[in-house]
Amino acid sequence: MTDLIAKADPVYVTDALIADDIDAYLDSHQHKTMLRFITCGSVDDGKSTLIGRLLYDSKMIFEDQLAALESDSRRVGTQGQEIDFALLVDGLAAEREQGITIDVAYRFFNTEKRKFIVADCPGHEQYTRNMITGASTADLAVILVDARKGVLVQTRRHSYLTHLIGIRNIVLAVNKMDLVGYDQGAYEAIVRDYTEFARSIGIERFTALPISGFKGDNITTRSANTAWYRGPTLIEHLETVEVNTARDIDKPFRLPVQWVNRPNLDFRGFSGLIAAGTVKPGDAVRVLPSGKTSTVSRIVTMDGDLEGAVAGQSVTVCLADEIDCSRGDVIASADAPPQAANQFESTLVWLSDEALIPGRAYWLKLATQTVSATVQSPKYAVNVNTLEHVAVKTLDLNAIGVVELTTDKRLVFEPYVDDRTLGGYILIDKITNATVAAGMLHFSLRRAQNVHWQALDVSRDAHAALKGQKASVLWFTGLSGSGKSTIANLVEKKLHAMGKHTFLLDGDNVRHGLNKDLGFTEADRIENIRRVGEVARLMTDAGLIVLTAFISPFRAEREMVRKLLPEGEFVEVFIDTPLEEAERRDVKGLYKKARAGQLRNFTGIDSPYEAPLSPEIRVDTTRESPEDAAERIVDRILGHWMPTI
């Protein structure tokens, strides 16, 4: 069988080595470098056909095809190769028709010189998130252009995104040259057009090739149809281009800690994938964000201890000192550590059908770190066709913008241009757990570097003890007209009569001063609750019992306030009044205005209210009077949440 394969393509099959020395073959295969690359571009530019050609010409074809070749040597020839290639491409096309490669499809193949993982990214604009997924780990991008159509909008979009994501090896594959008669002029016109655009977005160099994925021109062998082309074939370029791992080895040591191994009291190691640099026993390291220092005592793997390890290896590092280090921390070179901050400028690629909501808290995942982050209104969005900076208030699906964001904890990072691992992140919706954006950090904001937390001698517990109570926030939420302010006011009166130190923050009252600059858009409502949450937290630091009466329609923001406080100090009180009943009361006449179209973004009418799923206290005002509800709330609070100190 190997003889038959060799006849079909003797260049890329090492049949003699396999037959004579299988151990030598396996050893050579094990030490091949790996290149990860993506194919992208507009719809129907020939991505799947190109991948089919690469797989076929590298002999990654199905066992039944090999068996057919072995049993019928008449199929080994030009006609037979075309039949087999057509079957393979038909299979890839069938996957596309079934929607399988609407997500990223990964393919594996190898040649004598290198192993490859290729990500087949969908060309549709609505699947930009999938293209970003494939590009995030790639060393190279093959951007296909249909020779008949030239550079299109999606060509520009994918080129901009690949450069933005940090891919510096770009291949412009002008495909379907057979359909333009291998016209040199058509090819050179496309290259000129793309060169002008590439320079405008910062792509300093790229490799252009005239190819035909279907016919095989300039894929693995030079084509006689393009005698005017003197450059490498696609596979020659893929085999020789430098991979990112080689560059990462020369950087300072970085190990994001994925987990802590402690099988017994005598062993404690920190495991993860080395993102950059090299490490060996005796090296001085620093653990971020704490800044504690130590030295490496051992480098442990399943196959035994190592004398050294490099970027791309998964290892367990043991330290000479018992210092605090856990998942999310970064072990780095002591003399060249990364930065740690909590405010950043970043480029954001929005990947969700639901637009960015400025001020809303999202989970931010960077390497092994997960923190809560809020994004401010974008500074601007980028029009990928004109590269114009466009003023926007939010980011919609597939939009690219520059934003400022704040995290609730210090984040260990490096600028994305220096380190993709510690500079790239994703945002996750806290309610749905869906990935909504991919981001690239530029730098930490100077104000974050210059503002430091001031330690105070009188603690929040000391303030509360002086008042003989436990500081807490009673967060009343419900529709307009549900009775929040009425019940909260009664609760405060009862607590005050008992000698408790309280303060009531009412939604309408706060909008007369602190939040008078805010409207009632979704973003403004989120900012309204964020400010109130911060004020309530400061008041609990003073030892007060804080009552708040706000519609606070979104679960994410109520949960954000809960996270600001120590566990057990946030008490969600859901005033559960049906919309029909609240509208019937309509004490302020707001529902009438909303129904008449005179009041926009009114909760329950044209803006949603997300009811609490598991509030600490629920009040049904259709069955319980405000006085009875207040009495029950006070009794329950004093008995369970705020025992007298």
Protein architecture, described:
The chain is an alpha+beta fold and 645 residues long. The protein folds into four domains: 2-242, 3-Layer(aba) Sandwich (Rossmann fold); 247-333, Elongation Factor Tu (Ef-tu), domain 3, CATH 2.40.30; 340-450, Translation factors (Elongation Factor Tu (Ef-tu), domain 3), CATH 2.40.30.10; 460-641, Rossmann fold (3-Layer(aba) Sandwich), CATH 3.40.50. Helices cover 32% and strands 27% of the residues. The chain has 21 helices and 29 strands. The strands form five sheets. Strands 7, 8, 9, 11, 12, 13, 15 and 16 form an eight-stranded antiparallel beta sheet that branches. The termini are far apart. The model is unreliable at 1-17, 60-83, 98-102 and 641-645 (pLDDT under 50).
Supply database-style keywords:
single chain, 645 residues, alpha+beta, Rossmann fold, Elongation Factor Tu (Ef-tu), domain 3, 4 domains, 8-stranded antiparallel sheet, 6-stranded mixed sheet, 21 helices, 32% helix, disordered N terminus
